Amino acid sequence: MKLGLYFFSSFFFRKLMLILKEDVKNGFKKITRWFKGINIFKCDYIFLPILLSGHWSMIVMCSLGNEPGLLHLNSLKSTTHLEAEEHIKCFLSLEWERQNNLESLKISKKDLLELQMQVVEVPQQPKDNGTDCGIYLIKIVDVFLHTVTEGVAL
């Protein structure tokens, strides 16, 4: 079995936030070129780096085509990214509309909008260290990938 992984650029989320505040439909068409040729509903894991208020974390979208899940990998429990969750749901809903016109998807748009982001227990950086979130994130993603790919071809 081959595992489908996709990593968005670290600039994607910032661009997504901008277009959702401005012109959603036309803006969305512009950002689809960032993942041209990728059907996110066929990927096992999609990684989306998030930079909000100077803090890096990662959203992992899991099995969007079947039994979807949203995971939040965050090395600072004191930060929540609820606004990120809403932006991701909006993105998934728009992409569902676009992909569903091309082929019938197994998941409904309603199911995507009802997803609840699960905060994953990960190593936490010290509260007095507000600068190493990127390093923590790299290690957390590394461990996550080793865990989910054990015995699976990439």
TrEMBL record:
Coiled coil: none annotated. The lineage of its organism: Eukaryota, Viridiplantae, Streptophyta, Embryophyta, Bryophyta. Residues 1-144 form the Ubiquitin-like protease family profile domain. Belongs to the peptidase C48 family. It comes from Ceratodon purpureus. The keyword Hydrolase applies. Pfam families: Peptidase_C48. Keywords: Hydrolase, Protease. InterPro entries: Papain-like_cys_pep_sf, Peptidase_C48_C. It comes from the Eukaryota. Gene3D superfamilies: Adenoviral Proteinase, Chain A (3.40.395.10). PROSITE patterns: ULP_PROTEASE. This is Ubiquitin-like protease family profile domain-containing protein. One of its GO terms (biological process) is proteolysis. The keyword Hydrolase applies. GO terms for molecular function: cysteine-type peptidase activity.
